[in-house]
Amino acid sequence: MAICSLVITVAHSQTSDTSSDPSIAYLEKRGAATQLIVDGKPYLVLAGETDNTASSSLEYMNPVWPKLVKANLNTVLVGIGWDWIEPVEGKYDFTLVDGILDGARKNHLHLIFLWFGSWKNGLSSFAPDWVKADQQRFPRSLLKNGKSVEVLSTLSDANLQADTRAYTAFMEHLQKVDSKKHTVVMMQLENEVGLIGDSRDRSAAANAAFAQPVPVELTDYLQKNKETLWPDLRTLWETAGAKTAGTWTDVFGNSTAADEIFQAWNYARYMNHLAEAGKAEYPVPVFSNTWLVQPTDKEPGDYPSGCPEPLVIDIWKAGAPAIDINAPDVHLPNFSFWASQFQRANNPLFVPESSGDAGGAANAFYGIGQYAGIGYSPFGVNRVENWGEVRSVSNMPAPTAVENVPLAKAYAMLAQMTPLILDAQTKGTIRAAWLNTQQSTNDISVGNYVVHVDLLRNRRSGALAASLGFAIVISTGPDEYFVSGRNVQVTFSPNTPGPEIAGIADAETGRFVKGEWIPGRKMNGDDILLDYNQAEAAANNQSGSGLMFGADGPTVQRVKLYRYQ
Ligand code: DGJ
């Protein structure tokens, strides 16, 4: 079957301003998904983020680029520190930026720059010396104890203007050097913003702003979007009386949640200004990334207060419409939960930081397959040769040939399936499973069958044969699926009226080349037999046969089903 011949009939609506050049990357609502369009075509971001300062040295990056190619990345996320490009006020040096662009282009990679401007992980460590050393001119946030921390205040126009000048100069430079080549496909603005150490800024300017009424833009947004507000935010607002005017504590109650909302609003307004100014120069999509509230965090301030965590995403949407995506950095184990929190009608899923071990491979499949994700990007990709089966901080696994790390194999598969995946995202005909020993089974309703994805089991003993498995399931016809997975077995049950057992009519391995399916082996006999106990299988309306995907994958199979009673 020639996948490239699939006719894509979806409604399009562009969500980024590309007036200067329609082939500069932009986001577009296409049927059931919002997709990133690069060079006029939908694009799946198979990425990795380098360590914070890897990109501060072109020499360091030289041997990194070929590793990224071997790991089957198509995009790299690299930091650019404000102090690297404006070490002296008003004098910009883009040598590093040009060198990074050159390295990416020579290796046929796209780039997402991370603008480490006013804040990087809450702190302002990447601001130039002339900013950091002049607290009079560039005011900082103050904590309850009266101490200043190395965190620029959101409430200072001088801070905002200085960052805006630098970011705008950067984006103007990109416009000059990239608007024909389109190497840069998105920008991340700042990095994991938020105040650590207190629930809100206690500087004089912040105290004055906190005593003022909540801006009418925000109260209007709450009223207009009441039905779709994040449930906890809605409860907070309604518990305080669903007021449409009043101070922050009047509207959101007298707790640290009001402080967090105040911080979120002020970060959002500041960053919206930056995003708008940058887009006026070079209008690629912009996202923010967020630290996630850790299980041990009790209050905002334990985690960066104001960061776009689920409770306050609506505040960010109201305050920063120029930021296209609020993205989660998922360094916590329950990836599927966090992905579900960030994929919202007005917020497509993109994961700029997460793990790169076999769990990371599972995350990539899950985010892209279950939530029509734009892409995935594990953190520390310059060390990709150390990414084995399991992430270990204390014991760094022995380096592996890069092409053999689980993530590289997963990306190879996602790359060959990209046309089919992107088409299925628009049609809503793709789902995914992420399995481990706590959750070893997942029933997916897609197409005319419920697809049962289980962690691979030993056929005779029934014991689990793997501890982590994942799969993408795509319905391509009334009785046809493509399934790609690792360490899983897959069976089917009809979900439309008629005979109740699904038998395998035909299954085959294969691969996609330029979007076209090239069949490999026919799968039958031992390849599909899951259970010799036919009586029990029949009693459960099962055929006892299914698809199997071992540890060597992910691999892909095409299956045609038939039904019997
Ligand atoms: C999250 C930050 O956003 C990254 O820049 C990096 O410092 C990682 N944490 C480290 O795990």
Give the CATH architecture of the largest domain: Alpha-Beta Barrel
The level 1 CATH classification of the largest domain is Alpha Beta
CATH topology annotation of the largest domain: TIM Barrel
Within CATH, the superfamily of the largest domain carries the name: Glycosidases
The helix-and-strand class reads alpha/beta
Q: Please work out how many helical segments DSSP would assign.
A: 16
Termini separation: 29 Å
Instruction: Please state the average pLDDT score.
Output: 94
Small molecules bound in the structure, each named once: (2R,3S,4R,5S)-2-(hydroxymethyl)piperidine-3,4,5-triol
Shape: globular
Q: What is the topology, as strand order, of the major beta sheet?
A: 12-11-10-7-6-5-14-13
Low-confidence stretches: 1-12
Q: How many distinct folded domains?
A: 2
Portion of residues within helices: 25-40%
Rg estimate, integer Å? 25 Å
Major beta sheet summary: 8 strands, parallel
The tally of strands reads 24
